Amino acid sequence: MSHGRMHRKEDARFIRGRGNYTDDVRLPGMLYGAILRSPYAHARIVSVDASAAEAHPKVRAVIIGQTLAGLGLAWMPTLSRDTQAVLATDKVRFQGQEVAFVVAEDAYSARDALELIDVEYEPLDAVIDARKALDPDAPVIRDDLEGRTDNHVFDWEAGDGERADALFAQAEVTVAQDMLYPRVHPAPLETCGAVADFDKVTGKLTVWCPTQAPHAHRTLYAMVAGLPEHKIRVISPDIGGGFGGKVGIYPGYVCAIVGSIVTGRPVKWMEDRSENLMSTSFARDYHMRGEIAATRDGRIRAIRVKVLADHGAFNGTAQPTKFPAGFFHVFSGSYDIEAAHCAVTGVYTNKAPGGVAYACSFRITEAVYLVERMVDVLAAELGMDPAELRLRNLIRPEQFPYRSPTGWEYDSGDYPRALRLAMDLAGYDKLRAEQADRRARGELMGIGVSFFTEAVGAGPRKHMDILGLGMADGAELRVHPTGKAVLRVSCQTQGQGHETTFAQIVGQELGIPADDVEVVHGDTDQTPFGLGTYGSRSTPVSGAAAAIVSRKVRERARIVAAAMLEASPDDLEWADGRWAVVGDPATGRSMAEIALAAHSDLELPEGVEGHLDAVTVYNPPNLTYPFGAYICVVDVDPGTGQVKVRRFVAVDDCGVRINPMIVEGQIHGGLADGIGMALMQVMAFDEDGNHLGASFMDYLLPTAMECPSWELGETVTPSPTHPIGAKGVGESATVGSPAAVVNAVVDALAPYGVRHADMPLTPANVWRVINGNPFRT
Ligand code: CDP
What is the whole-number distance in angstroms between the Cα of residue 539 and the centre of ligand 1? Predict the structure, then answer.
């Protein structure tokens, strides 16, 4: 009844400019903070003299590393059980690192006063190329860690190396390819910031900030700062895009809190665009080497991968704690492969920390890109059509639930159907014929195919936690006497439309209009505990919680309806959104009628409480596994190297779609993101560690100009473990699309003998590839 193409409820305020973001928060007596950042990528701090800044007439406090060290707050734990400097005390370890925090009467004076702080640095050699981080003579970045003599962070392995090696030893064909998934940035429209208000009288701390995980932030503040958890309130108001970059706690948030405690007044800190790009969490930065062993007729038998992961100066990766390389396990992709093995080594470099799941479920984007590029490399080696090669190796529908060679259980799917649909929509055979004609004329047209499987909806809590907090999420539902409902959830939308879709879930389950359901989120005082929104986990986890809590309310309503009808609850059936006596629809009672009765003097059976509400905590039994087949068509200008994406066909399967319009919007955004990463985005550094992309002049985001008119298709394979059969979708397109674009460009460049080219495929990079290779028809 309520699932369907409903317009987004939240747009009523957004399109009127009435959103309420962190920077819109204004409190009486509020002060403003600004951060002094390091100009060096690696330098020892000799001295910090803040006296001139303190003397500025509008400055109320200057906080430096040593101030925090006195409070035991100079370092904070990261989400990966490392430590990160809040304000540097000993050394700076990346350009843009936080060194001092000024609190002033207005934002301009705070910025002005930064200029008055005198920091003496002794520059050190920087480690910028991850491939040199483990050299014996590389400077040790984390000499703050006791006994540390190198830049090694972790080693992680998955799969069966011996079995894979054995298959490689007897393989008819093997291919190998080095590739880089470059460092990119989530670059949300709204930068990060916080308003902290510590009330000295009540001891209550309120923090507004655009966090994707308000409850986790509150618990961590309590654990680290020793403040009582019930005296902390984290409010995450409207968020202008998160994409994984707003999961962690940034030094600026801590500084705003300390600033408020020190001054006794509320303190607002908002970073600017350059600060956001230079210092908040990056994504990817995986140097990968993939290998495939196959038969000559195109049967993939084994895959091996080696990864060097650049984690920056502090290991601040946001992902379930036991998974240092996230969910990279899905590197065997959507294919039925006998053996797979992968080894990841993480290293420190003098770059910003992070490694967030930028619109992806914890490193799945890197994994999908790797396997999808490798399959194309194999297709080139075998001289086979890449779509045909995929069809030959995709997991077959009857193999679900499918146990992957790294031990994950893919829940459901019909992969060949999705790929065939994409090929039909694209007119694949005709495209290949057109390509042959154009190639004969010296024109560069490319067709790129990719297939992806995502794994979204972390936990279950038994296997997945963030710093010991199990990944399960609560929901509370209350139906008021007039039949209007309030759903409280722990996750937090950053633009994905939860206020609409979660209301639709409740509406569908209770037989009331979605407009009659208010969704409350983003405020720890108002919502049940849960781990929040990232890795497309909202619908798989909180969406499931919303359905289950609604069903609990519906069962309570059944008892109330039975009392109203003087019947036994067992004699009632739920039909057309009403409880009615079996076979007698005229007796049907709507949720509004039942709600009023539940709040009235109606006599209820012994032990049944009045009113109509319920709570639940949903611990997902498994991840959900959305998938899709993408086909991209590009034209490359041989003279300039410019790539034009002519067409993009995307067939997605995210199980049951709650709101198809929102799903399509999510896919559109993700596809644009994918084009951005494939063709223009990279966080580049010079050899001294100077950041070369600290503004949108240099760090390029895709616009409508670079995007074709998307051609979408869908298949629906419900998730067997989700109460309404839904799988997550928020990140599918970002995960699946970069490989399709790169495969298309490499396909276009095939006449030059090109097998691979690293992202971003900017005109300059493509031009270099073209000019480094002879054209062969
Ligand atoms: O966690 P996040 O919200 O980023 O991702 P998601 O759970 O995949 O949901 C993105 C948006 O698409 C939400 O508004 C979902 O409720 C909606 N959605 C849907 O309508 N049907 C699905 N099967 C999956 C998501």
Answer: 5
User: Is residue 1 pLDDT above 70, yes or no?
Assistant: no
Q: State residue 367's pLDDT score.
A: 97
CA–centroid distance, residue 208 to ligand 1 (Å)? 24
Give the position, in ligand 1's atom list, of the atom nearest the Cα of 543.
16
Q: Is 693 helix (H, G, I), strand (E, B) or coil?
A: coil
| pLDDT average, residue stretch 374-393 | 98
Sorting pLDDT into bands at 50, 70 and 90, what band is 290? very high
User: pLDDT for 609-624, tens place per residue?
Assistant: 999 999 999 999 999 9
**Residue 247 near ligand 1, beta carbon < 6 Å:** no
Q: Residues 310-329: what's their mean pLDDT?
A: 93
Q: What is the DSSP string of 460-514?
A: -TTT-EETTEES-EEEEEEE-TTS-EEEEES---SSS-HHHHHHHHHHHHHTS-G
Please, what is the average pLDDT of the chain? 96
pLDDT for the residue numbered 359: 87
SS3 category, 118:
strand
Can you state the angle between helices 591-598 and 544-565, rounded to 10 degrees?
A: 70
- pLDDT for 777 equals 55
* Mean pLDDT on 303-310: 98
The residue among 516, 498, 499 whose CA lies nearest residue 590 is: 516
| pTM score | 0.97
SS3 (DSSP) at 51: helix
CB count within 10 Å of CB 407 equals 10
Please compute the mean of the pLDDT values over residues 65-72 and round it to a whole number: 93
Residue bearing the CA closest to ligand 1, atom 19: 658
Q: How far is the CA of 22 from the centre of ligand 1 (A)?
A: 24
Instruction: Say if ligand 1 is within 6 A of residue 733 CB.
Output: no
ipTM of the complex: 0.99
Please calculate the CA angle 756-760-762 and round it to the nearest 5 degrees: 100
* Nearest Cα residue to atom 22 of ligand 1: 657
pLDDT of 550 > 70? The answer is yes
Q: Which atom of ligand 1 is nearest to the CA of 498?
A: 14
- What residues contact residue 623 under an 8 Å CB cut-off, 6+ apart? 361, 408, 411, 455, 456, 457, 458, 540
Cβ(533) – ligand 1 distance below 6 Å: yes
Average pLDDT over residues 314-333: 92
Mean pLDDT of 399-413: 97
Phi/psi at 514 (nearest 5 deg)?
A: -60, -30
**CA neighbor of 245 nearest in space, from 683, 654, 638, 557:** 683
Residue by residue, DSSP assigns 631-652 as EEEEEE-TTT--EEEEEEEEEE
How far away, in angstroms, is 482 Cα from ligand 1 center?
Answer: 29
Atom of ligand 1 nearest to the CA of 505: 16
Nearest to 191 by CA among 250, 130, 112, 119: 250
Q: 170 is written with which tokens?
A: 């007897």
Q: How many angstroms separate the CA atoms of 543 and 506, rounded?
A: 9
Q: How many CB atoms lie within 10 A of CB 602?
A: 13
> To the nearest whole percent, how much of the chain has pLDDT over 70?
100
Q: Is 663 in the pocket of ligand 1 (CB under 6 A)?
A: yes
Q: Is 730 in the pocket of ligand 1 (CB under 6 A)?
A: yes
What torsion do the CA atoms of 418, 422, 425, 431 make, to the nearest 10 degrees? Answer: -150
Residue nearest to atom 12 of ligand 1 (CA): 663
What is the arithmetic mean of pLDDT over 442-466?
Answer: 95
